Amino acid sequence: MKKKVIIVASDAGNIGKTLVASVILETLRLTEKIDGYVCDRNFQGLYERYGQKNSNKALKPLHLQDPAKGVSFLDIANPDEKSKVASSLGTESNFLLFDLPANATHQLATCMGTPQDFIDFLEFADAEVVFVCPLKDQKSITSYKSLRETFPTGAKFILAINAGFIKATESGAQAVIDGLLTQFGHESYFVLEQTLSPRIFDLLKNNSLREVFTPREERKQSDGSYFPGDSDYLAQDRGDQFILNKFIPSVTKSVEALFLD
């Protein structure tokens, strides 16, 4: 099996890249080996949620992180980091995930020299790249189209339509969502449908999805009861629990279908 190098990328900011990266990382870690890398020096949300912690439950420094168990740092868009990018592919994991900062996709093409050099290098390492591009607004659409033009061959693309975020922030949200599905519904995509509350976003700054709330279908026992109970999770609000009970299984199944089939 070829390694899959999953790069969550968009030049647009504030569209949910790190949430998308979190969903992919956490879902694949349920059954697969996957290395996680944060690639933004200024915003390290993925590390804060999924980084390894010491015995005092404090995050271990980035340079001490095992990317197969936590989240490490790698500036994949920096040509000076070329050797580190190459070394990262020597992992035993079948998947690598890179959470890129905004406005980095134009730099990514120069990491190995040219876009084709980048593709050729991955092919030589028996790996393939999968770009995951969140869509929310025109800037994110423009970024996605630019990335496809930069890598016209040799790369796969998956779209993450952030419907919940659109509903929370845009007027005429349903028309925007319908327009995205009409324009891009023939491509590989998944939809983040539910609208997460500000409380959940605050909790997700430092916690994984399943530390905030694990869906009941994942903790149902043979006698029909659920363990642990809802009250044992950080999402204490009943409305938030209801949303997460729908949100997590929905995106988990979508990610599994796209990456594990």
Describe this structure in words.
Strands 3-2-4-1-5-6-7 form a seven-stranded parallel sheet, with helices on both faces. It is 40% helix and 14% strand. Helix 1 crosses helix 11 (238-259) and helix 7 runs antiparallel to helix 8 (173-184). With 261 residues, the protein is an alpha/beta fold. The two termini are 12 Å apart. It contains eleven helices and seven strands. Helix 6 (138-150) links the parallel strand 5 (127-135) and strand 6 (155-161).
Task: Detail the topology: elements first, then pairings.
Elements: E1 3-8, H1 17-29, E2 34-38, H2 45-50, E3 72-73, H3 82-88, E4 95-99, H4 105-108, H5 115-124, E5 127-135, H6 138-150, E6 155-161, H7 163-169, H8 173-184, E7 189-191, H9 198-203, H10 209-212, H11 238-259
Parallel strand pairs: 1-4, 1-5, 2-3, 2-4, 5-6, 6-7
Helix pairs in contact: 1-11, 7-8
What key attributes describe this structure?
single chain; 261 residues; alpha/beta; seven-stranded parallel β-sheet
Query: Structural class, please?
Result: alpha/beta
Bulk shape: globular
Alpha plus pi helix count: 11
Question: Low-confidence stretches at least 5 residues in length (pLDDT < 50)?
Answer: none
CA distance, first residue to last residue? 12 Å
Largest beta sheet: strand ordering: 3-2-4-1-5-6-7
Mean pLDDT: 92
Strand proportion, as a percent range, falls in 5-15%
Tally of DSSP β-strands = 7
List the secondary-structure elements in sequence, H or E: EHEHEHEHHEHEHHEHHH
Helix content: 25-40%
Report the major sheet. Answer: 7 strands, parallel
What is the radius of gyration computed over CA atoms, rounded to a whole number of angstroms?
18 Å
Query: What is the quaternary state of this protein?
Result: single chain
